[in-house]
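EI: anyone free to look at a 261-residue chain?
SC: sure, send it
EI:
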Amino acid sequence: MNKPAENTPPEGGERIAKVMARAGVCSRRDAEKLIAEGRVALNGQPVTSPALNVDADASITLDGKPIPSAAPTRLWRYHKPAGLVTSHRDPEGRPTVFQRLPPNMPRAISVGRLDINSEGLLLLTNDGALARQLEMPSQGWIRRYRVRMFGTPTQADLDKLAKGMTIDGVRYGPVTAELEHTKASNAWAMVSLKEGKNREVKRLMEHLGFRVSRLIRVSFGPFHLGHLPEGVVDEIPGKVWREQLGMAKVKNPRPSSRFDV
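SC: here you go
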């Protein structure tokens, strides 16, 4: 029987869950789950801790197969259509975002999620560590959504969200909502928030008495949907996103590429 790999940090090493995320295998959180399930090995020995540090040349396997070498980190914009689940696999058999991506595109994971009925900007990356970094509320990035709802809210109604509120025991932080225009039976508003909890916009609007009929994310931090056509993937040049994150300039960045689905 193989002995479990002990957590003996080599000088200059990185945590194994982070290495797996950088290799594009999965997010760091999912890597931790795979390790807990006993599916990850280091130099042939089962790994028991996601805090284990490894050398750059370590031999890491998942289900007995070597994980790929870490590729240069890349980031894409994707215009998600409604009707797709933001997941690699769906237990209910519904179509997923990743099934609709171009076959020549590298394996990617999403930065956060959009629910099945939501549309608009979804960031994708091949680096699980970067995805985790961009998802964290401490990043301080604003997410903006165009929201169509049934009813005729006033700006005074939407201003109730500015101080935050608690719904069914869940605390939601301050949200800025600006009424754009109303018609006989529905209205459009621009909603800006930082946290982006599960179904946050819909729950907030329903709490005010207005059911959301369409939700389109138009920006995530400094990245905007713009005029990107529905179903299209567009790579953000490395120089651009590294500058936005305050990272050092990357040498020989990959050229930008767009994939039409």
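EI: The chain has six helices and 18 strands.
SC: 👍
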